[in-house]
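Cont'd.
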Amino acid sequence: MALISEHQLIQRLKRGESDAFDAIYEQYRPRLFAFLARLTQQRELAEDLLQETWLRLAATAPRLADATNIGAWLFTVARNLHRSHVRWLVLDLDHRRWQRRTARHGIENTSPFDLTAAGELERQLEHALALLPIKHREAVLLVAVERMEPAEAARVLGIQPDALRQRLARGRTAIAARLEKTAKRDTIGSTDVA
Amino acid sequence: MSPEPKDDQILDALGRLPARDVDPWRREQLRRRALAELKRQSELARRPWLAGLTRAYDRVLEPVFVATITCAYLAWAIQRVNELLQ
């Protein structure tokens, strides 16, 4: 979206024009949903947080600054909503029981996209992403998947650019290690069959 | 420390992951809810006095009302328990 058209869209959104909202909704909804689904690893929760994000935009629209970067604004709200949700999970006994059970039985997280991923590499990447700690995962999602500028992603996450680079590097290393491990396992599997 | 995304095969492959979407029914439901909220906020923005009134109700009147009802009910319940115990 060009800067001028985004500026115009925000002006119209502030006036409550529904077609301006629709244009922003169509552009950012799939990206936000994918971001939230990969972050939460739960489709229903991602849908709830997606709804809350759009309701926040609608509620704040008349007071938005003209120079708002709407993409960064939406991702910041979505990420903060997820963060609040994670804080509340500490008090959720069912969730803590589930965490203990998965830790005991070594069940790994499976991304909601794992089952529908088209190719083998895509499936492996989704799986490796799902296994990352949240703070590394959100950095990788914003910079690598969403192609956000590192400085902008750092602002969305509320951290310094250096910290973002560090999280990105750690996330990337963990994904690479995971892919390598899978490749080795597949090689051993095919040798055994041969 | 970290390679730039454009020079890195893994980050590049991550960048090609598709952005999937919610199903059409849910998509439309979310859109309608958000548009209703947008319309409500736009009307409030056009009438500042109404916005002030709504804000006062949301932030002061409603919490005070709920707290009063809750306290009155608790007082009644404690009084009843005391009566039963005596």
